[in-house]
Specification:
about 75% helix, mainly alpha, 9 helices
């Protein structure tokens, strides 16, 4: 790990704070809290899991894209290209800081609305989801010139990726659905909440699918940012 990495982490945290990322997380948590407090008794048991799944996945994709495009607009990326900061360090700093924010936000929802959940499985799942979708945001952000166009375009790309999550609600859970990353993610969240049950073999398959998807997303994200740094 390069000596400057922790300084880069601090820089990203300040950048995210300055650009309102944490304020946006707070706003989303407030909206989720109002909905769950007001209508929680009328919502199905898996509703909380949907709120939590949307937090690290949707917000991760949109926040990383917005940050990258804002940095481009401010020529921050150009300045970084002439420093010793590597593409690897830049990439992992964004991944770690935004994943930590996602874990905090998801944990707040969990503590308030379902404190007795399976915390190890819950945190692992949230981390895998967050890392995956933040990493996906890197190559997607290169397709659009502005934050507004990114938000609209990323939605069209992102929705088909997460729609298979609803396969996790099928009873019984189909064998083929284990290999859809979104379905695996959502099923793991449901199991961590005790809403759904699974045996050890199925649990390992779900974790394997989620991990492979995360590694794939990390690969394409890192490849994308290395190519971008090479051009700068």
């Amino acid at each position: 790990m390069p000596k400057y990495f922790f300084a880069l982490l601090r820089h990203d945290i300040r950048l995210q704070f300055r650009n309102g990322i944490y304020l946006a997380y707070g706003f989303v948590l407030t909206v989720y809290g109002i909905i769950l407090f007001s209508f929680g008794q009328y919502l199905p048991a898996w509703a909380i899991a949907i709120f939590i799944y949307s937090d690290p996945s949707a917000l991760g994709v949109f926040f990383i894209g917005a940050l990258i495009l804002l940095e481009k607009r401010e020529d921050t990326r150009l300045a970084l290209a002439i420093t010793p900061i590597s593409a690897n360090a830049y990439f992992w700093s964004k991944i770690l800081t935004l994943t930590f924010a996602s874990l905090i936000a998801a944990s707040i929802i969990g503590i308030i609305f379902h404190p007795l959940l399976n915390w190890p499985l819950f945190l692992v799942t949230v981390a895998l989801v967050s890392i995956s979708f933040i990493a996906i945001g890197f190559p997607i952000s290169h397709m659009f010139p502005t934050v507004t166009s990114y938000m609209m375009g990323a939605s069209l790309i992102f929705i088909p990726i997460i729609l298979p999550m609803f396969f996790a609600l099928l009873q019984p859970f189909p064998s083929w659905a284990h290999f859809f990353p979104a379905a695996a993610h959502f099923k793991l969240l449901l199991v961590s909440f005790g809403t759904k049950q699974t045996d050890l073999g199925q649990l390992l398959i779900l974790l394997f699918t989620s991990l492979v998807f995360t590694l794939f997303c990390l690969w394409i994200g890192l490849f994308s940012i290395k190519r971008e740094f090479a051009r700068a």
